[in-house]
């Protein structure tokens, strides 16, 4: 009986060991299948993400190309419109039609108003007005001092011709300078002239005026050509610059004949 019991117990132990091994193998197999499924799912998810990325990238590239072509087309149209506006303004000037030129400017840039869109322009114009006023005062002061210097030189020359002493010469020079500065018309006109700053500056800067009524005789263009009206205006302006000892820049648009002026 003891031998039979021992044999039966050993058999049961072997069966338990084999059953445990079988369970372990099944657990390992299920874990392996689980990790294999996870790996396959991740590979598939990665492929889906890559496909979506490629699809969205192609969509963005296509959209950017379309927007780029749209912007290029709009830019070409805008540049063509600007060139057409410039050509129309140039033709108006060549035809001496200043009213049409002003109207084209108004159509291109719009009239000034109190709207918020023109607040920056209004501020710029105001600052320009103030700057021109300061420039006018400095110009008038310079001209007055120059004229006073000429008066002082005349007084000194006259005093030395009378063979006066140096103290008397200096006294006459000082008196001439003070008298000229006190009676100078330019200093008075700074505060009495009306109009805007630009018109006041023009009147005071070009106080010595020379009217140019005909084309210079030594200018002999081919086919008996003549200067246009606006070219005569520019020529007269540059003559006034010379007579008033001023510097200036003739800044007409291209193609209007600045060289001949």
| Shape designation | elongated
Distance between the termini: 142 Å
How many beta strands in the DSSP annotation? 0
Assembly level: single chain
The portion of residues forming beta strands comes to under 5%
Order of helices and strands: HHHHHHH
Helix content: over 70%
The pLDDT mean sits at 77
Low-confidence stretches: none
The secondary structure category is: mainly alpha
Q: Helical region count?
A: 7
How many strands, which pairing sense, and closed or not: the largest β-sheet?
none
Rg is: 48 Å
Q: How does this model look, in words?
A:
This protein has 261 residues and is mostly helical. The protein has seven helices and no strands. The protein has helices at 2-94, 98-109, 119-161, 166-182, 185-192, 197-205, 229-243. It is elongated, with a radius of gyration of 48 Å.
Topology:
Layout: H1 2-94, H2 98-109, H3 119-161, H4 166-182, H5 185-192, H6 197-205, H7 229-243
Quick overview of this protein structure:
75% of the residues lie in helices and 0% in strands.
List the main descriptive attributes of the protein structure presented here.
261 residues; 7 helices; elongated
């Amino acid at each position: 009986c003891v031998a039979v019991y021992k044999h039966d117990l050993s058999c049961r132990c072997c069966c338990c060991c084999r059953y445990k091994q079988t369970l372990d193998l099944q657990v390992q197999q299920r874990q392996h299948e689980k990790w294999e499924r996870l790996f396959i799912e991740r590979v598939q998810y990665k492929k889906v993400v890559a496909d979506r990325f490629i699809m969205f990238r192609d969509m963005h590239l296509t959209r950017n190309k379309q927007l780029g072509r749209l912007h290029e087309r709009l830019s070409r149209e805008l540049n063509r419109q600007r060139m057409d506006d410039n050509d129309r303004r140039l033709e108006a000037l060549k035809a001496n039609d200043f009213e049409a030129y002003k109207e084209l400017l108004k159509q291109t840039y719009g009239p000034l108003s109190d709207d918020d869109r023109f607040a920056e322009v209004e501020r710029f114009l105001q600052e320009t007005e103030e700057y021109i006023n300061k420039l006018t005062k400095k110009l008038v002061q310079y001209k007055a001092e120059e004229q006073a210097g000429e008066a002082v030189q005349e007084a000194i020359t006259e005093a030395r011709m009378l063979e006066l002493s140096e103290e008397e010469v200096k006294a006459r020079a000082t008196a001439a300078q003070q008298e000229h500065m006190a009676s100078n018309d330019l200093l008075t006109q700074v505060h009495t002239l009306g109009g805007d700053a630009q018109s006041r500056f023009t009147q005071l800067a070009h106080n010595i005026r020379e009217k140019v009524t005909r084309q210079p005789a030594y200018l002999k263009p081919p086919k008996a050509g003549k200067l246009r009206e606006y070219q005569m205006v520019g020529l007269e302006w540059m003559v006034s610059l010379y007579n008033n000892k001023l510097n200036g820049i003739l800044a007409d648009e291209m193609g209007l004949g600045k060289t001949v002026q």
